[in-house]
Amino acid sequence: MRVEIRMDRSCVEPKIIILTAAITEDVQRIIEKLSKEVPQVISGSKDRKIEVIEPEDLVRVYAHAGKVYAATDKGEYTLRLRLYEMEERLNSNQFVRISNSEIINLKKVRNFDLNFTGTICVELANGTTTYVSRRYVSKIKAILGI
Asked: 51 lies in which domain range?
């Protein structure tokens, strides 16, 4: 897929044109993403208070025992969103799913340990150690360029 951007000073409002021979799954996905207006505010509860969480403060988002949690440097928050909804709200260039139950912030990763057979150990900035499930190993390796 090619992406072409043209700058035109006479253009008042951005306009997106998709040229394609057929509506494929990729094209449909792009159309859905462009037509959705998802609010970017992420709120979580902690100590019976609701706080707004900035995406750059997130270390990881994970599901445990039927609830979704957001780990930040300020502590852990309980979220009302599902994990897939969080994935949609987060920037895919900065956040990546590493298992069915966890999304990590790539900017908060200390290191990736590839010594484990079949999986990858991830050490996060807050000291948490987590693992990439086998299903997501190839995706992480592609992101890392290995």
From this structure: 42-144
- Looking up residue 82, the CATH number of its domain turns out to be 2.40.50.1020
- E strand spans, the chain: 42-46, 49-53, 58-64, 67-72, 75-79, 95-99, 102-105, 109-113, 120-124, 129-132
Tens digit of pLDDT for each residue in 47-80?
A: 999 999 999 999 999 999 999 999 999 999 999 9
The answer to whether residue 96 scores a pLDDT higher than 60 is yes
Collect contacts of 24-32 with beta carbons under 8 A, ≥24 apart.
26/1
Q: The whole model's pTM is what?
A: 0.71
Q: What is the distance, to the nearest Å, from the Cα of residue 107 to the centroid of all Cα atoms in its chain? A: 12
Confidence bin at 45 (pLDDT 50/70/90): very high
61: β partners: 70, 103
Assigned domain for 23 exists = no
Among positive and negative, which fits the CA dihedral 109, 114, 116, 120?
positive
Q: Indicate the number of domains in the chain.
A: 1
